[in-house]
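ok here's Glycosyltransferase:
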Amino acid sequence: MPENSNVSVAVLLPCYNEEVTIGKVVRDFKTALPHADIYVYDNNSTDRTAEIAMAEGAIVRKEPRQGKGNVIRAMFEDIDADVYVMADGDDTYPADAAPAMVDKVLEGYDMVIGDRLSSTYFQENKRPFHNFGNRLVRGSINGLFHADVTDIMTGYRAFSFTFVKTYPVLSRGFEVETEMTIHSLNNNLRLFEMPIQYRDRPAGSVSKLDTVGDGIKVMSTIFRMIREYKPLPFFGGLGAILGIIGIVLCGSVTVDFWHTGVVARFPTLIGAVMLVIAGLLLFITGIILDVMAKNDRKAFIIDANQFAMMRRQK
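and the structure:
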């Protein structure tokens, strides 16, 4: 990272009951980024997280709305900087990777992803359902958006000012990282993945992730964002399923009529026609919403460009 006093860097550490690790995390980032401001947002911790972070020189603020997404929303609203580095307070991410991530943002990338999965994640993380979930989410999103992002759900990222101030944080919990990645892919933002050396939590540090509950939230977020960002495949796919079922039923009734000259299953015929009509309406809905989604992307790009231009003029 260049020694440039004109470049302001903010390190963002959302925390909930991380007294075991937060002191070391703050010290590590102060060493890696000596000119950065380090912010610890305490999300209703019941231990000494805030006290320890403050003693280590971090700027500590409280966020009463529970959930990582709520904390990140508050951070993005409150803090102004040229470059932002976001990590967790559990000492699983190496602070010494931060300068290189900052450099990439200064080169022009909107978001730099600290890629755990290309290095030590599967060796360090002993939770098989987490590993399975990562693969499932990665495959689903990459397939839908024709992308090749390795680590969709990492909590170690760096952002530009424009990204932070134009990204609408909708999620409340741990699914926010997935939302960030989908938002970036949908709007064709500049992404860079940087492999990092992930390490598991140290002894005494407890994960706040609920494997089943948070997994359901992540999948529901993907479902919602596919519906909003890719409405034609979503509604068109549903319409095609209903239409095919309706056509098959109509075909069976038609075959019976061909052989007997009588429509013996008139209710089936009515239901089949209704399914075909419903499928057609869903397909038309998908087309309309797809046009609206493309217009939203155009508006976002225009707004982001204007925002970046205003930032450069300051």
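+1. Residues 266-313 form the longest helix (48 residues).
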